[in-house]
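User: Second chain of the day. Same drill as before.
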Amino acid sequence: MIVLLSLQVFDDCEQNYPRILQHNDSLQSSTATEKGTAQYLLCGIRGSLSQVFDIQIPNITVPINIGVTQIDFSLTDIKIFNLQVPELDVKLNEQNIVQLYLPNCDVDLKFQWKFQQSSYPYTTDSGSGTVVLRNGTMSGSAISEVDGVKCPGHMKVNVIKSNLEYQSLKIQLQGGQSWIFQSLIDIIMEAVQVQIAGFISSTMSAGFVKLANDVFEDGRREMNYTNNKFIKDERYTDRVQIGSRFATLLFSGQTYLKENLTDEYITEFGWFGEIGRQQQLLLYNYINRFLTNMVQRLVTSGICFKGYRFNSCFVHFSQIKIIIIYLLTTHTYLIDQVYQHLNFELNQLNNSK
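Assistant: Same format as last time:
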C-alpha cells in the first residue's frame, strides 16, 4: 500500500502577501513515504520517457593510438531510441538527500561514426552503429532547491552523484570499408566501449534530472475559484524536506483576491477552472466528482503535477458522501465535517504501466 498524507490550511485573503515565498509562508504540505515517493517518481518518469528520445546528446571523439599513427574515432547524431525503466527504489535520510536506485534498465542507442587518420595517408571512413545495454542499474544521489529570488516558486532537482553498472554492453558498427577499419576493429571497439559506458551513465543521469524536473515543474501556479475571482497559490516555498523515510513538499496554499495580483508567476489558467457558486442542494454531484479527483491526487502524489500523465497510476474509489456546512467568504469550499462516512478503496497500482 502506498501512503501519502496531505495537510491543507486555508486562511483569509491577504492582498499584500509577499510575492517572494519562503519556508514560513507554507500553508500546504504533502508528505509521502519512501514507497509512495518511488511510485510517484516512477509514474512521472514513465509518463515522460518520450522526452528522453529528444535529448540533444553531444558528440564523442576517442583518440586511438596505433603505433606510428593515430586515428580520431567520432560518434555523432547519437540518439536514445529505447529506454526501459521497470522499477525504482528510493531511500530517504535526514540530510535532504534522496538516494535513487533504478535496477534492470535497458538502453538502446543509435549513432553515426567516422574516423580520421591523423597522418599520411589520412585515411577516413564512416558508417552507423548501435549500442545495446542490458540489465543496467543506475544509482545516484539527488538534492532539490528553490531559488526564491531568481525563480520563486520553481523546484529544481540536481544529481550530485551517479553510477551505472551493467551486465551486458554490446556495440555494433555497420559500414566501414577501409583496410584500417577492418584490421583494427577490435582495438577500436575496446577503446570506444570504455568511453560509451561513461557516456551512457552521464546521459542517463542528465535524462533523469530532466524527467524529475519535468515531473515537479508543470507551470501551474494557482487554482481558480468563483469565476476566476479568487485563487489559491500553488507555488513551492522550499526544497523537498527529507526526513527519516519520508519526504514533504511545501506549498504556499494562500488564497488571494485576483484583481490585486500583479505577480508574473500567477497565470490566468487553473487546474480545475472555475467553481461556480450554486445552491448547496445542487452541489452534490459536482463536489463528489471534485473530491474523488482530489483524493486521487492526494494518494497519487499529494499534488497532481502533470496530472494528465498519471491516469494509468490513479486508484479508484467508491462513492463519497458529503455535506457542505460552510462556505468561506472567498467562496472556496471548506468541508468541516464528513457526513456519516467517507469510504474509499485503494486498488493495487498497475506497475506494468
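Residues 39-216 form a domain with the Bactericidal permeability-increasing protein; domain 1 fold (CATH 3.15.10.10).

User: Great, on to the next one.
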